[in-house]
Amino acid sequence: MYSVADLKKGLKITLDGDPYLVIAFDFTKPGKGQALYRTKMRNMINGTILDRTYRSGETFEPASLDERQMEYLYKEGSHYHFMDQQTYDQVIMEEETLGDSKNYLLENLKVDVLLFGEKAIGVTLPNFVNLRVTQTDPWAKGDTSGNDSKPATVETGYVLRVPPFIEEGELITIDTRTGEYSTRVKG
Amino acid sequence: MSFMRLTNLRLRAKIMLAVRSFFDDRGFLEVETPLRIPANAPEEHINPFESEKWFLHTSPEMCMKRLLSRGYGNIYQICHCWRSSERGTRHLPEFTMLEWYRAKGDYHDLMRDCEELLKWLAKGDWTEAGNELPNNIRAAFGNVAEQISVEEAFDRYASMGMQTAMHRGVFDEIMVTLIEPSLPRNRPVILKDYPAEMAALARLKQGDPTVAERFELYVNGLELANGFSELIDPTEQRERFMEANCRRSQAGVPTLPLPEPFLGDLATMQPAAGIALGVDRLVMLLCGAERIDEVVSFTPEEL
What we know:
The complex is a heterodimer of chains A (187) and B (303).
Chain A: E1 2-3, E2 12-15, E3 18-28, E4 36-43, E5 49-55, E6 59-62, E7 65-76, E8 79-83, E9 90-94, H1 95-98, E10 110-116, E11 119-124, E12 128-136, E13 150-154, E14 159-162, E15 171-175, E16 180-185
Antiparallel strand pairs in A: 1-6, 2-3, 2-6, 3-4, 4-5, 7-8, 7-10, 8-9, 10-11, 12-13, 12-15, 13-14, 15-16
Chain B: H1 3-25, E1 29-30, E2 36-37, E3 50-51, E4 54-56, H2 61-69, E5 75-82, E6 94-103, H3 107-123, H4 135-142, E7 146-149, H5 150-157, H6 162-168, H7 171-179, E8 189-195, E9 204-205, E10 208-219, E11 222-229, H8 234-250, H9 260-266, E12 272-278, H10 279-287
Parallel strand pairs in B: 1-5, 7-8
Antiparallel strand pairs in B: 2-4, 3-4, 5-6, 6-12, 8-10, 9-10, 10-11, 11-12
């Protein structure tokens, strides 16, 4: 159980059955009045932002969150299947919940799945993933148009900007935090 | 130390000089009273730090009013004060207070002082310290103050009247979430006539005992000062302290000793009005600082 004195940015609490992340917090006290704790929280499942004001003496349930390494198996419609390699437990995540993370999910990729009780609510990806380019226009040698990048599609269907010299079939490294091209994997 | 913080501290020193010359020009005597005292004024929501059975003062008002009762005229003090468990973007447990008293005056005199002090500061040349006073702040300090009664503020900015809010116990929440963010920012705002229950040491308003002659000064939405016409009836003052202790005990917080010498001296005190202004917040406004941390040499976390 947390008290208002534990409130700080980054605290995870359970509210009305959902996990919330405290994203902003301030102590305030109107002249001669009581101490008030103004918080802004983000619902960790649907992303809605909530403003709440608490008084001293109020308490919170911690959000029991668990992170487990799992392997991405396959996609079925908008459902993404993951499996814990130790226990063989499987979880399903909606495309909407995954957000941009879906751009980097290649079968057998190991990710950290964030669980709220039994429910998977997010994944933490490796900072860099290697993906193969499936489509990009060829670079005409001697092109002096000055274009320093061109679009390319990788095997997950994700489209990003790459340097002109990248060719179809090449393996590239992508920074999953920014979604940008990082480097070419040689060989 | 970052460059900004050094700039702010330079500006702070200049502001302190300007504040002192403001009061000096008006014939106020600067006083120093003990910071460690046997008893503060017991208030429901202010918690003092203990110091070997005594306390660090939460404001200099006990000793300053005793000076008034001994016949001192207009006095002011700039000193550190301590309030336990108060830490936020605009709160430090140890902070600097400017407190002044108008002998024979009432809260209207203090409102005038506030306006004149702000104007005085708005005229100051702060560029020397490396800061150009932003135009919006110059206006917030220099324009004529708008006076709004607390009741009017509830009618204007909240969905509920002041008395209803008091009955439902949500006065503070509404003040912080609905009223304070809506207050005009292009001029100082004086929010006046607080509910009688919310003024432990203030005189009740002549002709309307449901409210006290108390006001808060807001500049650019920031609560800067709290002033009132002093209650000088020792019997009523004692009862209010006992009520505050009663509410503290109901809320499960320790009760506090009564300041007996103060209550004794109150019998000989003439009418007066006093006000406390948060110096760190004043500096925040003039520096354009978002956090109180930016205008002090050390925060408790840095010690």
